[in-house]
Amino acid sequence: MKNYRVLAITDRSDLPETELFIRLKNIGVDIEVACNPTGRYHPRLEKSGIIFYPLFLKTRFSPAGMREIREILDRKMYDIIYCFNNHATSNLILSRAGRTAKVVTYRGTVGNINFFSPASWTTHLNPRVNRIICVSRAVRDHLNAMQWMGIKFSSGRAVAIYKGHDLAWYQDAPTDLSEFGISKTDFVVCFAGRDRPHKGAHVIVESARFLPKDLPVHFILMGKISENRKLIRQISESPLRHRIHLPGFRNDAPAVIAAGDVFVMPSTKREGLSRAVIEAMCYGIPPIVTDVGGLPELVTDKESGLVIPPGDPRALARAIVDLYENPETRNRLGKNARIRIDRHFNINTTVEQTRKVFEDLMAEKNHPI
After folding, report:
1. Which of 4, 159, 194, 328 is the most exposed place for a label (fewest CB within 10 A)?
2. What is this structure's pTM?
């Protein structure tokens, strides 16, 4: 395979993304990165020796950002441009820069793309996009099923590559939960997610109504949902309101999760592949997830966690009680969860599959659409 040069355009890279860049470089891929240098893991990228360009993209249409992208692409020729978010893709497409390069985009969510949306045509639907790397099969299959008036995705344009992790990244000591008034004999159910209705935090709160009154359970719901007035009002009306904690955004969220007994992600729709669930599994915390998007790809029901129907607080309550009453099952699921991440969601597999996408693209003579 002829040598090729890749430019990745992103924002503040998380750890799996940063490690993807570093490990691609380590296996011989000539990759450079344009990114926001204020990211938590940017020092890791700098230390690796990868050439990077500071880039700040605040909107999908940023004249300053487009100018910076053009300046980067004027310095040297790239064979592949990998855009990790909509801001990166739109600004690249609208700047009309790097016209000879193959374009790859990343998609981490099911839905919210359609043929009637002008914004979609400046990102994944744009004819310049050669490949869409999807975080799960559910995301890929949703894209492949889209069609309108004879317009549809060409075969092979969307591919599924799991966002890989490494168990060695997750070594934080469990947080002391006494700050929440939680004792070591209490049963702790954790959640971490964005303040979006489809994440299902309201389902967790509602499930408390169906739990036995003598169950020594506490809920820790992390994220900016602590600012959601509707959710706060719902909690105030709950019989367990004094045992539902909203600590807000926590930098130590994985350590808090590691201190819990169960992690729940009761998404109602649009779930790609939850990073919070993966982090819980890496710490051996058994997850309860809904049969939505990529979650059932991540969690094998009754083997590495429990999978329940979406929008069903009674089912969630039953699952919580089941894991409370069966510590042996809980331990088995937690151990299997770690094994599943290590075997099926490993960063090294992600690196190899991404490299193959690049090499397949370089072997193509014509645009696949």
Report:
1. 328
2. 0.93
